[in-house]
Amino acid sequence: MAQKPSIPKGTRDFGPIEMARRNYIFDTIRSVFRLFGYAPIETPSMENLSTLMGKYGDEGDKLLFKILNSGDYLRGVDPTLLADGGDALHLTPKIAEKGLRYDLTVPFARFVVQHRNELQMPFKRFQIQPVWRADRPQKGRYREFYQCDADVVGSDSLINEIELLQLIDEVFRRLSVRIIIKLNNRKVLSGIAEIIGQPEKITDITVAIDKIDKIGLDAVKAELLERGIPAESIERLSPIITMTGSTEQRLESLAQALAQSPTGMKGIEELREVINATEALGLVAGLELDVSLARGLNYYTGTIIEVKSRDVEIGSITGGGRYDNLTGVFGMPGLSGVGISFGADRIYDVLNALDLYPKEATTGTQVMFTNFGATEAAASMKMLKQMRDAGIRGEIYPDSAKMKKQMSRADALAIPYVAIVGENELAQGKLMLKNMATGEQQLLSVSEAIDAIKA
After folding, report:
1. Of all helices (H) and strands (E), which one includes residue 419?
2. Quick check: 209 and 227 in contact, CB under 8 A?
3. Least buried of 45, 302, 341, 369, by fewest C-beta within 10 Å?
4. What secondary structure letter does DSSP report for 150?
């Protein structure tokens, strides 16, 4: 029995309509990146595992897709490592030297270090490519998905953060998606950890409180206890991460709570500058200070950004932040950067849920020519060439088939116009243009038909 075709869990096929919709999203994001002065780069799908390992924390390392060495990958491996299924930790580096990239940020850091002599600093780049994670697939979470990143490295200025917030606002304005932009600052989180007497537990604290939206305060408290944070520290933390009020009121409350932490106060000062300057420029989106926002990643050092849709329940659709020493792991310390990543797949789900695609973004062929034989087809192809030269997307039915069969193709593909060239039309050097929506037919010259289709 023939094998039933399938694809790996957490991956998807995209047909023509889906691709038209995805390209609308990518084209929108790409045009805004360029509007703000970002230049495109690409990096390979696979990187050396040594580049990827240890950059995303222990959890991230487990989610890396490793690529087996080609050829006899077990040659030279100590047989004791293979006993009892092998110790993955020690076996993996011997049989897999490469892995699929987990995000675009670490490959970007590698790129900057490798090409530093050719780059103008500050360097502003964007990158739109797929990434892979060996995650458990679920709604809105895939094993293969696209990221659309923009980063600027080689500058400490908060102008970069302010510009990126405007860029986010412009992308979602063009896509007609209502969003809320949440902001925090890693220095504020460090200040909180200091104030509650647990500065060395900063990572444990941030990983736990980052989940407050998903699992609620009580579950976060339980997780913090499990991670070895004393109950009295957790009690001091609770009012800080659940504070309410306007952004200004939250900043005031934070400033009082963190008055004894110079690091925390520096974070508040940075947040205030970014929020005030961004709001002064005018945003469509709302800005909200969210002290629980940590995004769980180890490399943020300043501003942290997360974007949520107001109208669709889904995870974050864009996120990012400031990192001060990402290239340090590749031997180039002291290079500060800030970047954001648009989650194209989740944005796609949001636009689908709200049906926000403009009609022209998803229309394919505009006109189909019929085919009634060699002579008629030759004349049709000449006319079709004139139409394509005028920028009209067109095709010809390749076989001389019954009229009904040709029309049903145009119908099935929602092609708005059919151009009929039979004996009579041929004799007059014209075509019969049929509007498939109204059924109306007009005998027109090619240039008149071009005007009619464009109108």
Report:
1. strand 417-420
2. no
3. 45
4. E
For the cut 80, the answer to whether the pLDDT of residue 402 exceeds it is yes
Q: Is the pTM of this model over 0.85?
A: yes
- Compute the distance between CA of residue 85 and CA of residue 89 in angstroms, rounded to an integer: 12
Tens digits of per-residue pLDDT, 9-21? 999 999 998 999 9
The DSSP H or E segment spanning 128 is strand 123-132
Q: Cβ neighbours of residue 252 under 8 Å, at least 6 residues apart?
A: none
The rounded radius of gyration (Å) of the Cα atoms in the chain is 28
Helix, strand and coil content of the chain, in percent to the nearest 5, comes to 45, 20, 35
394-396 and 417-420 as β-strands: parallel, antiparallel, unpaired?
Answer: unpaired
Which DSSP category does 302 fall into? S
From CA 299, how far away is CA 321, in angstroms rounded? 9
Secondary structure element (H or E) that encloses residue 394, with its range? strand 394-396
CB atoms within 10 A of CB 269: 15
Q: Using an 8 Å Cβ cutoff, are 131 and 141 in contact?
A: no
How far is Cα 27 from Cα 146, in angstroms, rounded to an integer? 13
